Amino acid sequence: MRIRPTAISAALFFGAALASSPALAASQDSGGFSVSLSVPVVCDIEAADFVLDTSQNVVRGVVNEYCNSSRGFQILAGHRPLENGEQIDLDYDGTATSLDASGLSTIAFRSGARFGPVPVAIRTQGVVENLSVSFSVTAI
Asked: pLDDT, tens digit, for every residue of 69-90?
């Protein structure tokens, strides 16, 4: 007796089809499922080029905020510690703040998620050394 290769292939295919058939639930079985996901909190801040207005001694620019935290976020300004007599006033989206002499200042609080551009103006008085201000965002 000779077995043809096509007969073996057909038998193997039929056996594999039986082995891989889906399981069927009994009619009295109840089923359900739940789906959950978590979205990571992502915050970022990006500043475009700032321009110095020498006639008014003001630096102006725009900062783009993005944070998807439903609990809100804070905007911080970092800079070198200020010397006695140096004063830096910052207008961030219409809110005026004098920067802290320590070098770290909280300049805005946002409740909830937010995305968009914010106007910024920085005024200095009595600055004796170059000053660089960097912005950062922290989710709450």
From this structure: 999 999 999 999 999 999 999 9
Amino acid at 93: D
* Closest-CA residue to 135 (of 66, 76, 79, 48): 76
Topology (CATH level 3) of domain 43-139:
Jelly Rolls (2.60.120)
Q: Which of 106, 100, 96 is nearest to 75 (CA)?
A: 106
Q: What angle do CA 68, 60, 91 make, to 5 degrees?
A: 65
Tell me how long the chain is.
Answer: 140
Strands (E), 18-133: 43-47, 51-53, 58-67, 73-78, 87-92, 95-98, 104-110, 114-125
pTM for this prediction: 0.69
Q: Is the pLDDT of residue 48 over 90?
A: no
